[in-house]
Amino acid sequence: MNDFYLVSPDFLHVFDIPLLYGDKNEAVQRKEQILISESFARQLFGEIDNEILNAQEIRIEGRRCTGTYFISAEASSWA
User: What is the pTM of this model?
Assistant: First the structure.
């Protein structure tokens, strides 16, 4: 994963990014939550099903960020 950004909880209130799954009021409120693009969701899971996305864990190992995160929203392919 090359592009991973930390954002403030009001990120989705500042930028108008349409969500296909998730609630913009709850999507990035806790630091273990992540928002992924539709195209990345398809790379990870193939056919997208909101039941599959709900609370999916992703393990990230990297220099800036290491830990287990949970998908809380999926955005229309904006990235």
Answer: 0.68
